[in-house]
Design a protein that fits this description.
Layout lengths: L2 H6 L27 H9 L13 H14 L3 E5 L2 H10 L7 E5 L4 H10 L6 E5 L4 H7 L4 E7 L11 H10 L3 E5 L4 H4 L9 E5 L13 E5 L1 H15 L5 H33 L4 E5 L9 H7 L6 E6 L4 H10 L4 E2 L9 E4 L18 E5 L5 H12 L3
Parallel strand pairs: 2-3, 2-4, 4-5, 5-6, 10-11
Antiparallel strand pairs: 1-7, 6-7, 8-9, 9-12, 11-12
Bound molecules: pyridoxal-5'-phosphate.
Pyridoxal-5'-phosphate binds next to helix 4.
Length: about 375
Amino acid sequence: MNISYIVNELAEDRENYYNAVAPPIMQSSNFAFANCEEMRSALADEYSTFLYSRGLNPTVDILRKKLAALDHAEDCLVFNSGVAAIFVAILANIKSGDHIISVSKPYTWAEKLFNVILPRFGVTTSFIDGCDIANFKRAILPSTTIIYLESPNSWDFALQDLKAVAELAKLNGILTIIDNSYCTSIYQKPIDLGIDIVLQSGTKYIGGHSDTLAGVLSGKRVMIERIFASEYNNIGSGISPFNAWLLIRGLRTLPMRIERITKSTFQILEYLKSHEKVERVIFPFDESFPQYALAKQQMKGACGLLTFIVKATKREQIENFCNRLQHILLAVSWGGYESLIVAKCVCMATADFDATNPAHRMIRMYVGLEEPAYLIEDLELGFSGI
Ligand SMILES: *Cc1c(COP(=O)(O)O)cnc(C)c1O
């Protein structure tokens, strides 16, 4: 399906709403029926009817169809945050006594789910270095039901060979789930590589304007229908019609925002690579990246998020860099219009900082929609603090 068709036209039945170009926000909790017969059939099959907006809603439906098409998935569900999508994808596919294999250092709240919440219900998780397929093979137990991936990781961009992991999992009857937030479906389509469930934070690139949270979970129709009828409706964490509308609006410009951000990212990357105060850059589409060949093979592109290691001997120097910035904001998240910085040393207790450890001198930057020269001027100001 053509991408312009998906973001501009797919699922928009304009004749049903006065031919309005922008779809209306169906801000209604419930839907009425003409007679008892219609109501009875809706109650019997909520997955295919509008009954109550905790289940399906017409505005959310437009978004679901577009996002599923972008993922090359049969169907998807949209949540009010990325972590809700993670929680539901896992919860729907485990029972007490099961074992999960997760890549090491997955997204913070996925890690907490595995380490803190699931052990209370007898579900254990092994964390492995996902760069080597042999580590997955070694970690499989008779009770393993899920392999949880995040490729690339959003700090050091470690990748997993998605095709190889999917094949191994299928041989062993294990479900594969990937957090695809870094790439979005524009730059990576894990379902085409054999992965079962793809989830992403819609808060990042899809919303694209740092004004809403959202999460997407895509997969086979039977899987999505089962999750809908159970965990999705039971948790009640579906996206609201208004936030779904914001995401539909975000999708209109997603391809061109990604294109712009990709161009700018390479310019920022070149600037950083040649800077005397930068020890090293980490970016999956840079030739120096250890898994560059794999990145090229399974990703169509990379953009926005990059990490650089600064030459500093004291934590204060790194903080000076951050504090001097006039335009680039100190904030978590990414994928919006605005450029952002997070320094690793701010994410740890000051006493734990060790300047001899390059990982402690990491700065993660998100390149937004600003002009690259404007950002470089700001970075220059930052570097004057080191
Ligand atoms: C932000 C993020 C999430 C969580 O999404 P929310 O929308 O913030 O709940 C999950 N995974 C990755 C990689 C993220 O960056």
